[in-house]
Amino acid sequence: MSTVTRNIPFRIFKDHDAADRADDEFYASLTGDQRVDLMIEMNRVFAEAFDAPEQRLRRVYRIVESARG
Description:
By secondary structure, this protein is mainly α. It has helices at residues 16-29, 32-50, 55-68.
């Protein structure tokens, strides 16, 4: 069995408000495509952690794509 090592960057803030502002600034700096990619990755991690079906996301994607024409 192999072990995976991940480097996760983090910052320390003086208070919760400063951390919330930094989060808002980070997400505001992302493009729409980056936000969608991040959401898909978060959904994948959630699905793996809780054995949640990814079928729901596929269904929503299919509906959105069909609405676009």
